[in-house]
Design a protein that fits this description.
241 residues, alpha/beta, Rossmann fold, seven-stranded mixed sheet, two-stranded antiparallel sheet, 5 helices, 24% strand, binds S-adenosylmethionine
Amino acid sequence: MSSIQKLKFPEDFINKIILGDALKLIKSIPDNSVDAVVTDPPYGLNKSGIKNDADLTVFYNILPECYRVLKDNSFFITFFSTKYLPKLFENNPFKYFWQIILYTPEGRVRSPIGFTKYMLAVVFKKGNPKISLLGKDIFIDTPGKMVEPDEGFIDHPTPKPKHFIKEILRMFTRENDIILDPFIGSGSTAVACIQLNRKFIGFEIDRSYWELARNRINKFANKFQKELFDREENPNKGNKK
Ligand SMILES: C[S@@+](CC[C@H](N)C(=O)[O-])C[C@H]1O[C@@H](n2cnc3c(N)ncnc32)[C@H](O)[C@@H]1O
């Protein structure tokens, strides 16, 4: 993207999915200005259709930048490969906090021991952040396929279920927080943010995924606006998200 230098924070970033290289785009975000990073980076599995997935170079390059842009006392949450899990803890500026398992009953995750039935999100912290919501059961099954019940098939090689991202957001972030996903793919993090009244910043290098993500958020932003409007018109309608 040739106009990266012209992008200004926050107006050009908040609630936008920007087409471009996350390593360059993130440089325009000031220090200590993001409330959480929730992401699903290329993590070295050489997955077909995922750029920069041949190794962990991009992940390692963005890690210190994520630390820089995060506010003190906040969380960095990332999906990661089981294969390279030990590498996640090398040269990592964050402190390990916990891990979350996404159970996938259909067992689609290829491994040396056959298809396993889980994916891993690892929670790190900068400083000593507080958890927003304790005691909630976050071990929610996926619906069987990576098909969103309210959206249908998501045409991306590795979409993550947004109900799972929403549970992460509920636990580690608050309403109106700014959530950065530098590798947003089909836009699942953004849709989850819209539905839970968080602000999002998304970067995506692949034009077709960027278009997919933008179509998804436009659909949900419109729907969300309409629901808000309906609620204002009819306060008894409730505010179920
Ligand atoms: C594992 S996928 C994320 C999938 C996403 N969680 C979803 O639900 O659709 C990683 C994404 O990072 C993108 N990507 C790879 N290198 C990038 C870079 N340097 N800057 C921005 N995006 C990049 C890929 O195109 C891919 O869509």
